[in-house]
Amino acid sequence: MILDVPSTTITSSDGPRPIPLIGMGTATVERHDEVKSAVVEAIKVGYRHFDTAAFYGTEKAVGEAIAEALRTGLLKSRAEVFVTTKLWCNSTERDLVLPALKKSLRNLGLEYVDLYLIHWPLKINHQHMKIPVPKELVTAIDIKAVWEAMEECQNLGLTKSIGVSNFSSRKIQEILAFAKIPPAVNQVEMNPLWQQIQLNEFCKQNHILLVAYSPLASVGNSWGNNSVIECGVLQDIAKSKGKTTAQISLRWLYEQGVGFIVKSFNKERMKQNLDIFDWALTQEELNKISQIPQRKLVYLAGFVVTEPNDVTVEIDSKL
């Protein structure tokens, strides 16, 4: 059985464009060889939004999976899938943005992507995509120049929409001050343990869709943990409703009016992660979730660069 995934609309070169609210993530370190088959299985289950990035090294596998789905009839046309990829920090310069997108399109085997995001609001002055990155290689970006290059990518038809990732409201305001095409999406870490209430409200006010990554705290990944899955409040609600803790977290996100990227290569969990639309959380349950102590998982400096204690203040001030 194919489960239906609700969608919303974002601004694009074609006017309002539908984006499925649940996307399948492909960020992985240990399991690159499984990505193609996992994406094919996800298409069979009902996923139609696939999230990758130059940094992940999974663009080629995602593209091959889509090509196989078209060849075998799982998909009737390219337009049935929504593909997001991202500009890595070693290409956040005006003259490097367009070549980076063209390279991603070659990897994907596609003529266009549906959404192209600036992955992080910083520049890494090194070509190798490795983390952590020495702090002396990290600098601020010229956001006006980079955003103008992103707009060029959309105007050329190489991406239908453009947006950002890991941007604060202050950094987005900088873009809005000069942008001819405003960001359609801001993809950030968000889950019941990191609720992003103020940022979500800001994005709604500015007609920007917030899309959550790490909705389950990246459980199963080397950089993730079990904090969401083992959260007592979420476990109690799950038990009372006959649901999984993961489903409670994802339903909570859905009720916040955001999209989210969830990753599982297990077919049954893929199905469970989509099965969140024919029930709802009560106000009492929402109140309990709102009181969960907050805990951020992916710190910009700690995740991307070395010596986080030395660079956190420096880099965060530029967000």
Automatic annotation (TrEMBL):
Pfam families: Aldo_ket_red
Keywords per UniProt: Oxidoreductase
Domain NADP-dependent oxidoreductase: 22-292
GO molecular-function terms, A-Z: oxidoreductase activity, acting on the CH-OH group of donors, NAD or NADP as acceptor
GO biological process terms on file: secondary metabolite biosynthetic process
CDD domains (UniProt xref): AKR_AKR4A_4B (cd19124)
Site positions per UniProt: Lowers pKa of active site Tyr: 86
Positions annotated to bind substrate: 119
Record-linked InterPro entries: AKR (IPR020471), AKR4A/B (IPR044497), Aldo/ket_reductase_CS (IPR018170), NAD(P)_OxRdtase_dom_sf (IPR036812), NADP_OxRdtase_dom (IPR023210)
Top-rank taxon: Eukaryota
Active site: 56
PANTHER family from the UniProt entry: ALDO/KETO REDUCTASE (PTHR11732)
Name of the featured protein: NADP-dependent oxidoreductase domain-containing protein
